[in-house]
Predict the structure.
Amino acid sequence: MKTRYMLAALASAAVTTLALSTAVQAAELRMAWWGGESRHVATQKAAEACGVKHGHTVKGEFTGFDGYLEKLTTQMAGMTEADIMQVNWPWLPLFSKNGNGFADLRTLKGLDLANWTDADLAAGSMNGVLQGLPVSTTGRVFFFNKTTFDKAGVAIPTNWDEFFTATKAIKEKLGSDHYTFNAVKETAHLVTILAVTQATGKDMVDPATNRVAWTPEELAQGINFLGKLVESGAIRSQKEEAADGNVNLFEKPAWAEGRIAGSYEWDSTYSKYADPLKEGQVLEPVPMLKLAGAVTDGVYRKPSMVFSISKHSKDPEAAAEILNCLLNEPEGIDALGTSRGIPTSKAALERLGDSDKPEVRANKIVMASSGPVVSPFNEHPEIRGAFIDTLEEYAYGQIDADGAAEQIIDTVNDVLAKFD
Amino acid sequence: MRGQRILGLAYLAPYIVGLVVFTAMPFLTSLYLSFTSYDLMSSPKWSGLANYERLFTRDRTFLKSLNVTLLYVFITVPLKLAFALFIAAILNYKLKFINFFRTAFYVPSILGGSIAIAVLWRYIFASEGLANMALGTVGLAPVDWFGDPTNALFTITLLRCWQFGSAMVIFLAALQSIDKSLYEAAAIDGAGKVRTFIFITLPLLTPVIFFNLIMQMVQAFQEFNGPYIITQGGPLKSTYLLPLYIYDEAFKKFNMGYASAIAWVLFVIIMGLTLVAFWSSKKWVYYAGDKRS
């Protein structure tokens, strides 16, 4: 009898040891992301649900977009980054130029990579190493305040010519303090890119030479288009915008009241811009407006963001389990919904199904529009800074469009040369 | 005796460790980094004087930012000191509710460095903000506080001047410590209030003015929150103070070596101006009982 008990005890000990050696231990994980209120709430719920499912604790570290890069940079340099991180896709070359900035996701067992296409995984790879899982594909899309257009008795425009006609009508009927569009800083940069891309069909960076693909004349035309938006009264001048101080569009009373009736924003940020509108106002995602003679829609489409796992994580397998749950398992998919746009993961896409939500319609516009492959260098901090600073000089009349184009191209080529 | 010495060192140890780890080491490390090319993600690469050469010969942004910073300091510090002394002189009188007024005037300096106050400032001086509404009620045209590069720096300067409380409290304490018999003697000699202030109060306040000058100057050179939150250095870099430039280079552009070089130039400027102030103090600062005076 004693021997039987001894054998049973030994057997159970062996089974327990085996189980412990294969299953992932309960872990305490940190997860960092940026976003707005709705994304924060959704992600906290998803992290909690996935934590309960897999027996881990997930502590959220979340903030707005402003300052997130600086925080992440400091943490990466100090090796104190969170176990799971939301990383903007254009930042991958900054943190992981050689593919060794984050954990190699192909080596982690808990991730079901079959939910992504090879192209998706290539977009999240640096130097052939999978550094981040694409969460969604995003792009800039036009949002217009339908209520303002209705009030003026004009239809939402379908091309730039109609847009300028509608602007005139809105000014006449609703007053000179009404604007049909917004283009400040980052948006001014991307509207300029849009105008040049529509006219030339080329992205800013030529992948063959790693230099600016546009001629100064082509870029000058894009800058002149920005000038035309101001001259026609479609957008407020940079000076008028600066007079409000550093305030986001969605925080401005003029936006909430419909006096600024449109913008060019990421499809996934629909709620951020629709939520502050006063009751009864409707924000519509609108197909790409095209210039006369455009050779492409010029859509600025890219992986919106990736989720990466820290290479310093003490529990990378536990982090992989949570990440897989967030992106591929019902608990995570249901809680996250479309808070980060329309998911790239096949499992999530299937579960969420088709919908007529504005975010979904906005994403469909992005996916259906044509345009060249966008280089991550478009959003390199120094390149974006060069655009924003020079466009400001142009707006204040310190430089003309030709001079601005040459200045931007010189600066961008200097930055690109560092990556040769 | 030896035991006491060890005990004394043990008491000092937390401070010494803090000083070495959090001040001395970063200070010296930044000096080393200023001679390197360092992107935070890979090891620093020695580049000699390249960062300094770029700073002084090719970087237009640095020269613009340096000009803006010097202008900001030279406007802010005298304005703030004059205002703090003026309010302190008023609060030195025996008025009704004087303690309430002293507290009320000190409060902004407690709140002053906070993000919330900078945000509040942004709303007050926005195009449709409180300041322009107030101007409108008296029939004046609105002012473009942030959009006009000339006004933007002045508006940021006002924020710093509004935080005069700490300097004011020091002035107030100094005013209260002046020997009353000096004022009585001056009154007997027929001196009016203005002459008394100029020839008795001011000379006796010079050590405190000197102290406040140094402190406020150092703080003004390090101003960050106000311009970062309100204007982000714009428009046309008219409020782009050096600390903002250092921050952008270090954490937005990953040029930590270059940012360190700018930080060291800023340090040398502050040190230089402080030495000038100390040197000049022999000529204008009066210490009671000092035989040199």
